Amino acid sequence: MPTKSTRRKSERRVHARVDARLSMRVEGVPDDGQQTQIVTESQNISASGVYCSSQHFLSPLSKVALTIVLPRLPGATGKQELIKCEGIVVRCQPMAQRRGGDRRWELACMFSDLDVKRRDLLEQFVTWRNLQALRAAASASRPRTTRTRPAAAAPARRPAPRAAASGTASRPRKAASRRRVAR
Fold this sequence. Notes:
The chain is α+β, with helices and mostly antiparallel strands. Helices cover 19% and strands 30% of the residues.
C-alpha cells in the first residue's frame, strides 16, 4: 500500500501581495467587442499582478491595458506614481449579486510588460504595507497598560523677603494671614 506524502504544498506565488485599495483603470475588450475603460479599485496587489472588481466580463487570457495609481511612500521623493503596463486576464469570475445591483466580476490580471523600475516600486510598496500590517498586529496584541505621565515639576518658590538691614521685619505675607483666619 502506498504511503501518503506529508509534504506541504509549496506557495505558487513568486511575489508577496498585500491588500490595498488603489485607484486603477482597466482598458480591454469585453465580450460585446467594444473597447471599454473600467475605472475601479484594486483589492490586492503584488509585483506580478493585481486583483480588482469589474462591471464587465473580460475573457481569460485577453490582453488589457492597466493604469494603477501608486501612492508616495514615506521618505520617498516626488509624489504618487502612475504604473502603466499591459496585463493578461488570468481569472474573471462572477461575484455574488446584490439585490438591485449590477452584475460585477472578480478580475485577476497578471502584469505582462512591467519594467524593472516599476516592478521595484511595487515591491517596495508591498513591503511597506506588509510592515505596517505587522506593526499594527504587534501593537494590537500587546497588553494595554496605562502610562502615567511624569509629574510636572513644581513651580519654583519665591524666596521670602529678607528683613531690612535696619532690623525691621517685613510684613507677613497675605496668604499666610488668610490661612490663619480660615482656621
